[in-house]
Amino acid sequence: MVDHLLAVSATFMALLTWLYLWVGKLENGRSLLLSPCPLDQSEPRYLERDLLESRVREMEEENQQLRLQLSQSQVAAVQGQDGSYGNAQWVASADTGPEDGENTAEERSTQKGNHTTCARRPMVEKCELIHVACVCAGHNASRDVVTLVKSILFHRRNPLHFHFITDAVAHQILSSLFQSWMVPSVQVSFYDAEELKSEVAWIPNKHYSGIYGLMKLPLTKALPSDLTKVIVLDTDITFATDIAELWAIFRKFTDKQVIGLVENQSDWYLGNLWKNHKPWPALGRGFNTGVILLLLERLRRIGWEQMWRLTAERELMSMLSTSLADQDIFNAFIKQNPVLVHQLPCFWNVQLSDHTRSEQCYTEVSDLKVIHWNSPKKLRVKNKHVEFFRNLYLTFLEYDGNLLRRELFGCPSQPSADSLRVQSALEDLDEDDQCYDFRRERITVHRLHLYFLQYEYVPTDESVDITLVAQLSMDRLQMLEAICNHWEGPISLALYMSDAEAQQFLRYAQASDVLKHRKNIGYHIVYKEGQFYPVNLLRNIALRQANTPYVFLTDVDFLPMYDLYDYLRKSIVQLDLAHTKKALVVPAFETLRYRLSFPKSKAELLSMLDMGTLYTFRYHVWTKGHAPTNYAKWRTATTAYKVEWEADFEPYVVVRRDCPEYDQRFVGFGWNKVSHIMELDAQEYDFVVLPNAFMIHMPHAPSFDISKFRSSSSYRHCLTTLKEEFHQDLSRKYGAAALKYLTAERNI
Q: What are the pLDDT digits (tens) for 502-517?
């Protein structure tokens, strides 16, 4: 075997020498060996020479493989065993040298010494569009995709087009996320996974990914017919380099190769993990499908759809089901068609599952390209360098996504309609305006991650279900468990947080015995940006995501009375909210005690009110806000009663979900609820106080925004300006009927 390889190697070397010298005689005897840079491509003979040079490079790669096989054979002869790692002995096209666009240390040294002025061919053209596909289903996978995308955006220098095959949940989450993210030079397309289920549903699969773990198989059918190549990634991938380096490897494919994969780094396909372990057929160690390069055009041409189906049908006759989803079928197919695969260096898919050989893929941090958390244990996987990998992953997990909204200089892209609208609005603002910051906040587009945690709402039999709607920031997180103990119905919450705070919240919720068992709470992360708390934007987001016909508009600092959920549903029916414009007022009280024995009935509350343990809400600082509720009448009321709107009235109400939204010009402290109640009145809602309902405000430290209101005359001036503008808009919208609000304001 060794003698044979030596003979073949010598033959190739001789042929290489002859070709190289012959190429050098082209161009009327002018030797290319004396020409430091490529000739003008417009010259006719250049094309012929280029073809010959291409062939020389191919033969050099093949000879490199032969030398590798020779060294492996010599080692095996000495050691008496196969010491090779990988499938290099049968995949002649494996990348063993530096990637395109990279130089070895020797080459860098040579170039530096010779001061070459030759222009190097770039890895990928400057503005070449890179296509990336990913299958994503459910709430958890959607969070994983965000981290994957962050790692790609952080390193990228090319325009990107993401192709997501999603279920309805992931589509809703990711479409709103990318629409609000507005990253330049990024396109996103969605494909309905439901339409692909019939293609793979017939395949029994034991893998935890379920049917979605098989959906990479029909990608040639799902993706656009004019898309020629794509990088396919699992959601649990983290990039440590520019994805363009991976895209450049498509240029190394031979004419027959259609799939690029990294060898599997565990012993799974060797069949020796346990007694009677019988994996699907694979070549050597097999391949991992967490990172795939697909030449879609060639795959369609060779009839990929029929080929993988026939492979699956044949193997399922004996295997009965897949254990590793699509990976089993890819490997069985490759075993039958090894010439179609291009083996990627293992640093393009460093697999961090237990008992893998991933440590052989790198010797330095700079060697890492792609990290794959392919163990069900994810970050808890056992690995010698897992702490380093975990920190790298956490860096992107908590990285501020707003910083990735950067332009790719020199690569013009068509801005989205939302981007144009925001840009136009910004240009209309006067930066010398004293209230510029307030006005800018109104048009700021915050990144939005809907349904951050698992959400499963099951409608009640009656059509009178009601959602508690509220907003909060990190400093009010401790209220969630208490609210859940008081309210068993659905909840929609908008949480204003940074990327890092969102991860803290995730850990808090997953560790809470109360929260982790509640699946009817929609948590919607609105990522921080700007200097003000966008309170009404948050309320609107929570309101829009309510999935019930009625909503209870409250604040997170309030605890509703026990059984308020059931009481409100009965009141909705009794007061016919379905056919009348009513806003049901839930009387608000407060305590100054952090520990409160919560009243179990109205009688108990009245007793505590008389003893001074409770107070009517804000009676000592803002009486006008709730005075129209008429607490004196409520004390003895047994039936609901109507009250009239008065200036600065801001009760907490139950309304139909199609009520007016909050006015987003009001940020921070001041007039954010008052303006909403005013618009309800302008739309002729009746305010009806419920006689046996109540809620209690729990004490907390003053917010940063109320401190700014109290200390800044400029803040108060701008709030007055915004109020005047709101009155003007209300008059334009509702005509003469809105004049009473302006009159009431002047009479205060």
A: 999 999 999 999 999 9
